[in-house]
Design brief:
With 435 residues, the chain is mainly beta. The protein folds into two domains: 51 residues, no CATH class; 353 residues, Neuraminidase, CATH 2.120.10. Helix content is 4%, strand content 39%. The strands form six sheets. The protein has an eight-stranded mixed sheet with strand order 8-9-10-11-15-14-13-12, with no helix packed on it. Strands 17-16-21-20-19-18 form a six-stranded mixed sheet, with no helix packed on it. Helix 1 packs antiparallel against helix 2. The two termini are 21 Å apart.
Length: 435
């Protein structure tokens, strides 16, 4: 975390910068109070009469307004063929359980898990395969590819001009690349060694040319987590000639990190991690209000996000933000005056388009039943309700629900923010996203 000290915060407050200035200064997005351009996400406050539409950006800047949810693709509209375990006869079924989502150019890629188990166990009807679906931003299917196992991480790789997918979040993990334009689009990879965290793999991000993968479910086949020897994230090198993925630990489940919560008595102090549930990860956009340019890992059950500055580099540093609620995926609105959110909903087997006043704060899928404290039978309202869309205060870790209307919506897994307004009428933006 690139932050200022308590002494600096007190100095800013004495100078009349106020709470908002203090929060921005603690984000590391300003070098001093004399750099006003960086204090505001929209222009220069000296030339913009009202940089925030309403009130304080730390709260919802459009209070009382609801987001609109539209299903743009449902799993029941798509099918795949498979050969059930122990059978010689092919079968067919509709797609189900969409999870991770990523964007490459004008298209989205979504991993449908189709009921496959977390260690690659076939579904109840004997299906062993997930299906990665390519679709336009308006929801029109473009292509689909089956991969053996439960697809947990799917991310765009512009250098590949395709996507990378991991399977099996608890154990028996493997990895695939999918290059739609290739004559043989799907390439499977095996890891060069048994994964030393004794678990599976989950989300993937491309960070400064590195392929970074979450080391999920540590201790599934070994000592219970946390363990100092369990990696939390791997850097993975792919050899297309041997189809081997070589893993190198980036940091470990019990490494030390700087406390990032400005409302914590331990703010800016070093704290030993104890990660038990590394899960989603993303690269924070450079324009983010805080942690811009960092790699971020969510430890879902632990209700924490770990931010790495210079991940894998010689000056790597870790910060930990404790959250008020368990969360899964995170997305950052980078064009708060105009943009759309794409989200997966495993409960309703849908890919959804969320539009409306998305605001400036990071958006998260809140997962109360994903917390380590959650009961075995869940949801149990009001303490452990079903998943919901929320904002995340990146300075305090407060998770706050957002009001939605429209289609039935229980967010699960993936989120992707796309600048500009999109709907069933067509696509308007061609830049790529790495989620």
């Amino acid at each position: 975390m690139r932050s200022v000290s308590i002494r600096s915060i007190n100095a800013l407050a004495a100078a009349g910068i106020g709470l908002l200035g203090v929060l921005y200064a603690s984000s590391g997005s300003v070098a001093s109070a004399s750099s006003p351009d960086h204090l505001w996400p929209i222009g220069n406050p000296s030339t913009v009469s009202s940089p925030w539409p309403v009130g304080n950006p730390i709260a919802n800047p459009w209070p009382g307004q609801k987001l609109n949810v539209q299903q743009i693709l449902v799993g029941t509209s798509l099918h795949h063929s498979f050969t059930p375990a122990g059978s010689m006869t092919a079968a067919s079924e509709t797609l189900s359980n969409p999870d991770d989502i990523t964007r490459l150019g004008n298209d989205l890629f979504v991993g449908f898990q189709n009921g496959v188990g977390p260690q690659g166990q076939p579904s109840a009807d004997g299906n062993p395969d997930s299906t990665v679906v390519e679709l336009t931003l308006s929801g029109q299917p473009v292509g689909q590819w089956d991969i053996a196992g439960k697809a947990d991480g799917v991310t765009a790789d512009p250098q590949l001009n395709g996507v990378i997918a991991t399977v099996n979040e608890d154990a028996n993990s493997a990895l695939y690349t999918i290059t739609p334009s290739a004559s043989s689009p799907v390439t499977p990879y095996a890891y060069n060694e048994p994964l030393p965290h004794d678990g599976g793999t989950d989300a993937i991000s491309i960070y400064n040319g590195q392929v970074l993968i979450s080391a999920s479910a540590p201790g599934t086949t070994g000592a219970p987590a946390p363990q100092a020897t369990y990696p939390a994230v791997y850097s993975v090198a792919l050899d297309p000639n041997t189809q081997v993925a070589t893993v190198t630990p980036v940091f470990y489940d019990e490494d030390s990190a700087t406390v990032a919560n400005i409302n914590s008595p331990q703010f800016e102090q070093s704290s030993k991690l104890g990660l038990t549930d590394p899960d989603s990860n993303e690269v924070v956009p450079s324009a983010s209000l805080r942690f811009g340019g960092d790699f971020m890992l969510t430890s879902q059950g632990d209700q924490q996000q770990i931010y790495l500055n210079d991940a894998g580099g010689s000056h790597q540093s870790l910060s930990v933000l404790s959250l008020s609620q368990s969360v899964d995926d995170t997305a950052w609105p980078t064009a708060p005056r105009g943009g759309s959110l794409y989200s997966t909903d495993s409960t309703n087997d849908a890919v959804d388009l969320v539009t409306g006043p998305l605001g400036y704060l990071p958006l998260v899928v809140a997962t109360p039943c994903g917390a380590n404290s959650a009961p075995a039978t869940c949801p149990v309202p009001p303490t452990y309700p079903a998943n919901y869309l929320a904002t995340l205060n990146p300075w305090t870790g407060q998770v706050s629900p957002l009001a939605v209307q429209g289609a039935a919506y229980v967010p699960q897994g993936g989120l992707v923010f796309v600048p500009g307004h999109f709907g069933s009428g067509g696509d308007q933006d061609g830049s790529s996203d790495q989620s």
